[in-house]
Specification:
This protein has 126 residues and is mostly beta strands. It is 0% helix and 50% strand. The protein has no helices and eleven strands.
Length: 126
């Protein structure tokens, strides 16, 4: 089992920044990639960003490219999501997820992830 705990959500004005963190514990050796998803009220959970546990490749949804940056600290088993130039449409609950798939094209679908955090609320006011 892998446990994931997110932190760093909050309320910010449009144009502002937030950094989310996700700490993994438990059977972390089963993790090959980490991702962030988000879910706004009345909408499906959608992919935001992903990073394999090794290498330098990162993946982003078109809606956040150039504004969000995903990174990882393997020594701390932690993944981060730096969110800049936030917009009201970024308002959602953000979920961290872990994948045990050794390889994937983009790690951008929910069924590629086997563990999920509890979510952290991000609210962007206009």
């Amino acid at each position: 089992q892998v446990q994931l705990v997110e932190s760093g959500g909050g309320l910010v004005r449009a144009g502002g920044s937030l950094r989310l963190s996700c700490a993994a514990s438990g059977r972390t050796f089963t993790i090959y990639a980490m991702g962030w998803f988000r879910q706004a009220p009345g909408k499906e959970r959608e992919f935001v960003a992903a990073v394999p546990w090794s290498g330098s490749t990162t993946y982003y949804a078109d809606s956040v490219k150039g504004r969000f940056t995903i990174s990882r600290d393997n020594a701390k088993n932690t993944v981060y999501l730096q969110m800049n130039s936030l917009k009201p449409e970024d308002t959602a609950v953000y979920y961290c997820a872990a994948s045990r798939l050794y390889s994937s094209y983009y790690y951008n679908t929910r069924n590629e992830y086997h563990s999920w955090g509890q979510g952290t609320q991000v609210t962007v006011s206009s």
